[in-house]
Amino acid sequence: MKEKLYTIELHDALVSGDECPFCYLERDLEQKAIEFVLGSSYMESDTRDQTDRQGFCRHHTKMMYDYGNSLGNAWILKTRMQHMREEMAKEMASFKAEPAQSVFGRLMKKDGAAAEGTSVGRWIRSEESHCYVCGRVDETYRRVIDTFLHQVRHERDFLDLVKQSKGFCIHHFADLLDACAQGLDKKEQDMVFPVLFEQMNRELSRIQEDIDWLIEKYDYLNKDKDWKNSRDAVQRTMQKLVGGHPADPVFKNQK
Q1: Number of domains in the chain
Q2: Is residue 251 in some structural domain?
Q3: pLDDT reading at 242 higher than 80
Q4: Distance between CA atoms of 110 and 21, rounded to whole angstroms?
Q5: Whole-number Cα distances in Å, 20 to 97, 162, 167, 237
Q6: Is the Cβ–Cβ distance between 178 and 141 less than 8 Å?
Q7: Mean pLDDT, rounded, for 195-219
Q8: Helix, strand, or coil (residue 129)
Q9: What is the distance between the terminal CA atoms of the chain, rounded to a whole angstrom?
Q10: Domain-embedded: residue 89
Q11: 251: DSSP letter
Q12: What is the C-alpha to C-alpha distance for residues 250 and 255, in angstroms, rounded to an integer?
């Protein structure tokens, strides 16, 4: 089946006025995934089989708690706990204590195996490395990046739309640059990279001016001067540096 092109979603994100269209999309994808998993889907065996095996990261576990639906959370946690208990029992049954080793000895171990800890600890860390919500978000996010490349190749006016946006957070900017380097030919790269670099320099300068002026406003000499665009500079600078929406209210079930 042909993969979906997320042209409408990408367009909406670019014109949203957000500091990063990919942050905007990720927030939407994340919230929809939480709504899905805590909607009626938690009673479906195929969904619960996936959540049992994949579990949830700490961030999305907290989002699920904040969202509400105690019964939905309880069912999901019940069978995830059963899965973890069964698998951990197997790991502990086959556990063999490993001889203690000095720090120097661990550093000298070329394959790094000794530095990974016990077999049960390694299994636990492997379980913490995946999350049902992260997986759903990441899968769609990769397709949105592919859609960006498709638009660069096939839509002549697409870069004009990109230029009119507020650029990207630094985290997603790295993803976008890597994708362009891998997915576009030399001619396309020569067209897109100057646009992205010029835009990011401009938009980061704008954010710098806002956060600088916010600090200056705390000087009594400036107390009567206009705030300009600095009132929300802290949260916007946070987003530009690391991504996300730090000022968002808690996402809750509205039903």
Answers
A1: 1
A2: no
A3: yes
A4: 43
A5: 49, 11, 6, 11
A6: no
A7: 97
A8: coil
A9: 35
A10: yes
A11: P
A12: 15
Domain enclosing residue 119, as ranges: 7-97+113-242
| Mean pLDDT, range 171-178, rounded to an integer | 98
Tokens of 5: 């092109």
Report pLDDT for 1: 32
Q: Is residue 105 part of a domain?
A: no
- Could you give the CA distance from residue 214 to residue 182 in angstroms, rounded to a whole number? 39
**SS3 of 241, please?**
helix
- Which tokens is 177 given? 């640059």
**Measured between alpha carbons, how far is residue 57 from residues 85, 111, 133, 135 in Å?**
17, 28, 8, 10
Q: What angle do CA 75, 78, 83 make, to 5 degrees?
A: 130
Which tokens belong to 80?
A: 């995830």
**What contacts 119, CB < 8 A, 6 or more positions away?**
91, 94, 95, 96, 98
Q: What average pLDDT does the segment 5-19 reach?
A: 96
Q: Which two tokens stand for residue 200?
A: 């990011």
Residue 247 domain-assigned (yes or no) = no
Residue 104 carries which side chain, given as an amino acid letter? F
Percent of the chain with pLDDT over 70: 92
User: Taking a C-beta distance cutoff of 8 angstroms, is the pair 239, 169 a contact?
Assistant: yes
Amino acid identity, residue 38? L
Tokens of 201: 């320099």
DSSP structure class, residue 1: -
pLDDT digits 0-9 by tens, 37-69: 999 888 888 999 999 999 999 999 999 999 999
The one-letter amino acid code at 152 reads V
Would you say 76 and 42 are in contact if contact means Cβ atoms under 8 Å apart?
A: yes
What is the three-class DSSP state of 6? coil
Average pLDDT in the chain: 92
pLDDT band of residue 145 (cuts 50, 70, 90) is very high
